[in-house]
Amino acid sequence: MPFRASFECLWCGAAHTVRGRDDLEGWAQLCPDCVGKAGDNGFLRFRLRQALTERSATATPAAHPTAPTTASLDLHSHMIDYYEARAPEYDDWYRRRGRYSHGPIHDAAWNAELDAAGTWLDTRDFRGEIVELAAGTGWWSPLLASRGELSLYDTSPAALELARERLVAHRLRAHLHVRDAWAEPDRAVDAVFAGFWLSHVPAERLAGFLGLVRRWLKPGGLAAFMDSLDDPASGATDHPPPVEGRSTRRLADGRAFTIVKVVRDADALAAALRDAGFVDVEVTTTGRFFVLASARAG
């Protein structure tokens, strides 16, 4: 189905006009309200997945300097399916529940470092208009929404619904939309945050993604990232370690998916940010589990 800038929603019939060609709504021909309901509706989920495929197929190297290969597009599609399916159990990872518990000693260390990561994020200079890419279930979104006007993006409607519930519980508001982290920016904003996403960017595309983040930002705008370090007690007990940037992930129901997983240490991430033209680069770790980075658009 071709892209349309203005259309009547295929599900509810409401008229809608998108802001740019990268908006997924224009490819799916669904209004934002119906996109938000895709987690509970098979037809809407089908249209979103088809729209992602169609949009990726028409992307040109000029628009995407590090254009993905067919193999990386397949892996990206698998990740989209994985995180949509994982949404109901995703917060078990943060909370160390079920398969993510590694015993009282490791879990206590995890909880202490998770608190330290939150404290670090709270000290970043978030203000004005903020974009959160690959936001998932919105674990960090209330903090961001309390600091400025937050737009929260993810490819998973089910995860976004959980993020919406989390924001409502905190009596906070944000703009939530189904949108791929690789979609080109449609405006310049004051800050961008991506939590646990850079490790899902293949090594050969990292420079391209960091360039995309710079295009999101106004001059001097803040970029902040949080991601995983290489610790065997970080993931689920039945997740094998990544091999050559790929990882097999299993859900509680036994389904298995292959995704991109590239673990980067503080030095590697700092070098990549500087190479991408960022300034005021600051990268630290919490010890075992998390790497934390902030920088400014040069």
Q: What's the SSE blueprint?
A:
Elements: E1 6-8, E2 15-17, H1 24-28, H2 32-35, H3 42-58, H4 70-86, H5 91-95, H6 104-122, E3 129-133, H7 141-145, E4 149-154, H8 157-169, E5 175-178, E6 189-195, H9 206-216, E7 217-228, E8 246-250, E9 256-260, H10 266-275, E10 278-285, E11 290-297
Parallel strand pairs: 3-4, 3-6, 4-5, 6-7
Antiparallel strand pairs: 1-2, 7-11, 8-9, 10-11
Radius of gyration: 18 Å
Measured distance between first and last alpha carbons = 39 Å
Second-tier CATH architecture of the largest domain: 3-Layer(aba) Sandwich
Q: What is the share of helical residues?
A: 25-40%
Total of helices: 10
Averaged pLDDT: 90
Oligomer: single chain
Would you report the number of β strands?
Answer: 11
How does this structure look, described?
The structure is a single chain. By secondary structure, the protein is of the alpha/beta class. The protein has two domains: 1-58, no CATH class; 88-297, 3-Layer(aba) Sandwich (Rossmann fold), CATH 3.40.50.150. Helices cover 36% and strands 22% of the residues. Strands 5-4-3-6-7-11-10 form a seven-stranded mixed β-sheet, with helices on both faces. The longest helix is centred in the middle third of the chain and has 19 residues, at 104-122. It is globular. Mean pLDDT is 90; it is low at 60-66.
